[in-house]
Design a protein that fits this description.
CATH superfamily of the largest domain: Response regulator
CATH class of the largest domain: Alpha Beta
Helix content: 40-55%
Structural class: alpha/beta
Oligomer: single chain
Order of helices and strands: EHEHEHEHEHHHHHH
Largest sheet: 5 strands, parallel
Number of helices: 10
């Protein structure tokens, strides 16, 4: 089955460019486009795409609010949303991840990273643009309270996998780094999410930095 994608951006030229890039992949299908946040939410709920590419600055409601409505903490069956924007401002990154986005890209990241971000989102992973990753992790590290790491219910191996996720590793990299099978990595991630009451690897990464599991 192809990866079904919804494009949400108020600029028709951007949507057209993304469509050309994505539909050059044999297993991608752009099922709909949205020119504003309200349409993005409506089409997302109606079509249930595998991945939503969401701009931040859009009419009616912005991309952060639209992301929250499709993937936020109160959504029972959240969609996979990747925020793609011109503005890699730190506040936008935090707001997008807090709203439930599973990835964050700047529009000049290039076609290859756009395709990789869609594949990662469809596979339950996350990608944040390299241009903002270092700042993001540094900010989380600085924001963490200067105390000892908190106690947590994770096993040692689950904690190792969560640390790797917090450092931006994808599942295939974690398997090599920790000498684990892919199914074991996924099992540890699922166990960690269940124990911590978190819904995805992005929330795991934020939790790890805020609670000084990494540093």
């Amino acid at each position: 089955m192809p990866v079904r994608i919804l494009l949400a951006d108020d600029q028709a030229m951007v949507r057209t460019g993304f469509r050309l890039i994505l539909e050059s992949e044999p297993d991608f299908e752009v099922v709909a486009e949205a020119a504003d946040g309200e349409e993005a939410v409506r089409r997302g709920r109606e079509l249930r795409p595998d991945v939503v590419l969401m701009d931040i600055r859009m009419p009616l409601i912005d991309g952060i609010q639209a992301t929250k409505l499709l993937a936020g903490p109160g959504v029972a069956d959240p969609l996979r949303v990747v925020v793609v924007t011109t503005y890699d401002v730190d506040e936008n990154v935090y707001a997008a991840l807090r709203a439930g986005a599973c990835g964050f890209l700047v529009k000049d990241a290039g076609p290859r990273l756009l395709v990789e971000a869609v594949r990662a989102a469809a596979d339950g992973e996350s990608i944040v643009s390299p241009s903002v990753t270092a700042r993001l992790l540094e900010r989380f590290a600085q924001a963490a309270a200067p105390t000892a790491p908190v106690e947590h219910p994770l096993t040692e191996r689950e904690a190792d996998v969560v640390r790797a996720v917090a450092r931006g590793r994808m599942n295939s990299e974690i398997t090599d780094e920790l000498t684990l099978s892919l199914s074991t990595v996924k099992s540890h991630l699922a166990g960690a999410q269940r124990k911590l009451g978190l819904r995805n690897r992005t929330e795991l990464a934020v939790w790890a930095w805020e609670n000084r599991l990494v540093g």
